[in-house]
Design brief:
By secondary structure, the protein is an alpha+beta fold. The chain contains 16 helices and 22 strands.
């Protein structure tokens, strides 16, 4: 079943054989090419095409920039930012519109324009990809252009691991929140941010999106881990009630039973239109090589069709997730923008979770004739004990005392003629969940930024105090607003301090 489902998903991968338009070169792109002749590429050069075709989502591949800058080292990146800032100042001081640029590491976001920009400048950071474990094996330094697989593989060899994403194909730059940072600021200065140096910037970078500069590398703590136990449980959709209850019981905050070695669980309810089937996939990981730890007993007791859980390397466990979302697909469209992630957050309440699944099922009925649709509801726990274990950040979660559930929807379909139906249905499902949670007293304003749709406002969910803090830090390190006004993608804070 898993093999067939995965093959069906993979068969939808499209190739990008478009003819690249040739844009007139701007003064800015000519200056970049002159200053960095070995690191600037124009279409349709092979390096240019390779960079475009390396984006994960088809909608990002369809955007064609004027040129691509691929810095080979931090100094070349600093030179690039300095040139961009000079051009930005010239344009804005004369009342003109700044030329847009985008910054990419792994290029894994599905939101069009998040790491690419039409007829603008793209900074491709993939060559800044070194992974260097410390001599004492207590930490690891990795470049922002590395993928999670690069980091995990390097640490596997030393019997180490680091906290990070579950998908090995994702670039570290857009996902990493912890650790210390090296960053290039708007004025071209290279500096560091840690708990003791530029502490405000350090905190702001953990949740503040691309409003402050370009991070070049991270230093993160490691921990011993030779192998993990993990994989997927697969079952029919008829087990939904049992799975929702098992997830609810697991997510109840009970410090006496919380197991710090347990990751997840990630519970996915999927409707596959081509098969007319509803399936459930639950992803479990335990960071010690211990089969079926007691914390997962509630999931073990539910009958299943197939299971891939086993002792394996962390790289193997995260590669399995990556294989379930192959590159080159066209993902969820919202408001003329192709979009994969749509999210909300609720308190861990069984009635609310059942309603979320019911809303998902209503969406299935409304879109059952959408050709090629794969429509998934994902539940992820966010426990107070998890928040307390982390470093100080800017997401406004420190005061939460109740367990939360991050609800994520993903959708794939084939025909543009179905865009309007998918748009209306997807947003209605999210609104229905939010309205029900509000009436139940189980709503929560937090929205995980990397899962947000373009029309959502994650910084508002952080709370007024956290948002003001981020705006203040942005004004300190980027007073002229280069990264808010000229850097495309991400979510912006607003310059007047009142947004």
């Amino acid at each position: 079943m898993f093999f067939f489902f995965h093959r069906m998903r993979s068969s939808q991968v499209q190739s990008n054989n478009q003819d690249f338009p040739r844009f007139e070169r701007s003064v800015l792109s000519e200056v970049l090419a002159e200053m960095l002749p070995d690191s600037v590429f124009f279409g349709p050069d092979s390096d240019f095409i390779e960079s475009i075709n390396s984006y994960w989502a088809m909608q990002e591949r369809e955007i064609v920039p004027q040129c691509i800058v691929r810095p080979r080292n931090v100094q070349e990146l600093a030179t690039t930012i300095t040139i961009l800032k000079r051009d930005y100042d010239t344009r804005t001081q004369s009342g003109g519109t700044p030329m847009l640029f985008a910054v990419r590491s792994g290029g894994h976001s599905p939101m069009p324009g998040s790491a690419n920009t039409h007829d603008g400048i793209v900074i491709d950071l993939r060559l800044l990809n070194e992974v260097i474990p410390s001599e004492d094996n207590l930490s690891v330094n990795f470049g922002t252009g590395a993928r999670r697989s690069d980091v995990y593989k390097a640490l596997d060899e030393k019997g180490l691991a680091v906290a990070g994403g579950r998908n090995s194909d994702v670039g570290v730059g857009g996902l990493t929140l912890g650790g210390n940072y090296e960053i290039v600021l708007a004025n071209g200065t290279v500096t560091t941010a840690s708990e003791s140096t530029n502490a405000g910037l350090w905190r702001a970078l953990k949740g503040g999106s691309n409003n402050f500069g370009v991070v070049t590398s991270f230093v993160a703590r490691t921990f011993p881990s030779k192998t993990v136990w993990g994989g997927f449980l697969y079952m029919w959709g008829s087990k939904a009630d049992q799975m929702v209850r098992a997830f609810y019981e697991y997510t109840q905050d009970n410090p006496g039973t919380y197991d710090e070695y347990a990751a997840g669980p990630l519970v996915c309810f999927t409707y596959v239109q081509k098969l007319g089937l509803s399936l459930i996939a639950t992803y479990l990981v335990y960071t010690k090589p211990e089969s079926w730890p007691t914390c997962f007993d509630g999931f073990r007791s539910i009958g299943r069709l197939w299971s891939t859980v086993k002792e394996r390397s962390l790289t193997s466990a995260t590669n399995e997730v990556a294989s379930s979302s192959p590159p080159g697909l066209r993902y969820g469209s919202l408001f003329d923008l192709t979009q994969l992630f749509i999210t909300t957050t609720v308190k861990n309440d069984l009635v609310t979770l059942k309603e979320a699944h019911a809303a998902y099922r209503r969406g299935v009925l409304a879109m059952r004739l959408v050709k090629g649709m794969v429509w998934t509801l994902i539940l992820q726990p966010l426990l107070p004990v998890m928040v307390r274990k982390g470093q100080a950040d800017s997401q406004g979660l420190a005061g939460r005392t109740e367990s939360l559930v991050i609800i994520l929807f993903t959708i794939v379909w084939e025909r543009k003629t179905d865009d309007d139906l998918v748009q209306r249905t997807t947003r209605k499902v999210i609104n229905d969940i939010d309205e029900f949670a509000a009436t139940q007293g189980t709503a929560d304003p937090y929205r995980y930024l990397n899962d947000c749709a373009i029309w959502q406002s994650p910084f508002d969910g952080y709370g007024a105090e956290s948002k003001r803090f981020l705006q203040q830090i942005s004004k300190v390190y980027d007073p002229d607003g280069l990264f808010q006004r000229a850097c495309s993608g991400g979510f912006k804070l607003g310059m007047d301090g009142s947004d």
